[in-house]
Specification:
Layout (H helix, E strand, L loop, with lengths): L1 E5 L17 E2 L2 E2 H11 L5 E6 L4 H10 L5 E6 L4 H9 L8 E6 L7 H12 L4 E7 L5 E4 L2 E5 L6 E3 L3 E4 H7 L12 H7 L4 E5 L10 H8 L3
Parallel strand pairs: 1-4, 1-6, 4-5, 7-12
Antiparallel strand pairs: 2-3, 6-11, 7-10, 7-11, 8-9
The structure holds cytidine-5'-triphosphate and magnesium ion.
């Protein structure tokens, strides 16, 4: 099983002086937390990191410093998350049966959730995503006007790590045209007819997006 760690975003909403992956989280750059956890997982055989442009070298050094021996390569990320994953996927071995895609912005990945998504693939699904119920009421809007209140019972908040049969993900991300502005890989797999299972997510897998998230998620370690 190969893992892709999407870490190439700029972190505009975080507004730091460096890409989000290199903002301090505890006593190391944010990227180090998920990288160390994936490297330590018995489920993961090899890792490809998509690094922010200009931060390839520091990413490799960080992996070496942490003794992450499973890091196979580090690619320069693309303009969107989808492009970054596509570039990283090109470095995944042809022999890989399963690809796990994870956001570096979700530092607290653990074996329990990895096991849940992999179990779904063993059941015959093309992909699996961790998900949580929606705690808030969700409305569709046009400009300032509310046009619809959605039934939140039907909705889920989806996280990473997401697992896919390798060939299914390759097909979903193939081609040279720019990908749709999907914010996760499952969307690309769904769009190509893939069957994706929803498994139980983890509250600790919250994404670091805004400055307030840094302390909040660090407190969950
Ligand atoms: N990501 C990526 N390549 C991109 C954009 C995003 O690999 N071109 C990764 C991010 O590094 C992150 C994950 O996708 O781990 C989720 O993206 P997001 O939380 O939106 O991170 P950023 O794009 O960095 O943040 P922002 O949207 O605030 O700029
Ligand atoms: Mg983004």
């Amino acid at each position: 099983m190969w893992a892709i760690l999407a870490a190439a975003g700029s972190g505009d909403r975080l507004g730091a002086d460096r890409p989000k992956a290199f903002v301090r989280f505890g006593d190391q750059p944010l990227l180090g937390e998920s990288l160390g956890r994936l490297d330590a997982s018995d489920w993961v055989d090899a890792i490809v990191v998509a690094a922010p442009p200009g931060w390839e070298e520091p990413s490799i050094l960080l992996a070496e410093e942490l003794g992450c021996s499973k890091v196979s390569s580090c690619v320069t990320g693309g303009a969107t998350r989808g492009e970054s994953v596509r570039l990283a996927l090109a470095e995944v071995s042809e022999d890989a049966a399963v690809v796990l895609v994870h956001d570096a912005a979700r530092p607290l990945v653990d074996d329990a959730v990895i096991e849940r998504v992999l179990t779904a693939l063993n059941e015959g699904w093309d992909g699996a995503v961790p998900a949580l119920p929606v705690p808030d009421t969700v409305k569709r809007v046009e400009g300032e006007r509310v046009v619809e209140t959605l039934d939140r019972e039907e909705l889920r908040v989806v996280q990473t790590p997401q697992a896919f049969v390798a060939d299914v993900l390759r097909r979903a991300l193939s081609g040279s045209e720019p990908l749709s502005p999907w914010t996760d890989c499952s969307a690309a797999v769904e769009a190509t007819g893939g069957r994706v299972k929803v498994v139980e997510g983890d509250l600790r897998l919250q994404k670091i997006t805004d400055p307030i998230d840094l302390e909040r998620v660090a407190a969950l370690v």
